Amino acid sequence: MRDVADLTRRFADLIVGFGANVQPGQIVGITTNPGKEELTRQIVRAAYERGARWVDVFTHDPWVKRQRLAHGDESTLDYVPPWMVDRLEWLSDERAARITLTGNAAPEALEGIDPGRAGKDVLPYLPNTGDVVNRATTNWSVSPAPTPGWARLVYPDVDVADAYERLWDAIAHVCRLDEGDPEAAWRERGGRLQDVAMQLTERRFDRMRLHGPGTDVTVGLMASSVWLAADFETVGGIRHYPNVPSEEIFTTPDPLRVHGHVTATRPLEVYGAMMDGIRVEFEGGRAVKIDADRGGDALRALAAKDDGASRLGELALVDGEGRIGPLDTVFYETLLDENAASHIALGNAYQHGVADEADRQRLNASSIHVDFMIGSPELDVDGITHDGNAVPVLRGGAWQI
Q: CB within 8 A of 370, min separation 6: which ones?
């Protein structure tokens, strides 16, 4: 039997100390769900032990969301109470730390809900989240929280108790809790990714081409696009790791220069809506056709949220050296699945991904940010120079630079 209590405590320490890097005197905002109480409480404990002034916990219940989607007037489903927006602005003004726990604790909560309606309510994601991230005013981190409900979704062929243990084993492995010093292990992995990101930045490619089964897309880059690994710093100099785990390097693309088509290689769960078999065609930077075997209406509704919702805000590459992809497990959780495979994101762009202020004025802006995975060992990635020459970047999941 796994010592889940010990894992929970050590995971909370990693999230608070390494991920968010909570500082003495800080306010800490936590977003969580029912079913994640023990990890939430341990995070609160760890934050106060590091000297937090106040820990503010917001719990979002997917079953309550179901009632709104099932019975609310459709014209009101995209309404966001101002106090939720104001809370995030308060955390930004206070230079707070922010921690979000992911993982679908109740996968059945939105079963039978019209996907088109589901795509209109993106809570608990808030429309000003991208702005706060771009301001770099908060040190923040997102991490998975195992629950029996989520475990049933990932491992449907075993009983709930065994599934829950298996999910904890997987989370402990991919978050490097099985290392003697998990933080040191992350620093080592992060250093390798930062080296690759620096080399990609120095190449100053004009665009990237991703091509493989079902996908052939060219994504233009800004003149000052830079590649990053998930190791950020706030305007106040607080270093933090926004995703635990993180196996990606990413950049901010030119929202007007995306052409071609992509096919998702993994299912996607977004704000409680399930999607699978996603196929998207791009012209002039915009997603002009969106199809899916499941959840297509929800994704189309998200892409219609605002003018920037159908354009790209992120391009991320993932190699085969990480711990998530080799498990060959679909977690139905973007944080984990996006770090198993290269991906793109519709919606808001991160300012960190460009160096020049003029380029930042051209970045995509949206109230959504939806990642979906298009990578696999069969996906080839090339950097295209301004002269039109193709330089191999990824082959079979291995860096070529």
A: 268, 270, 299, 302, 345, 346, 347
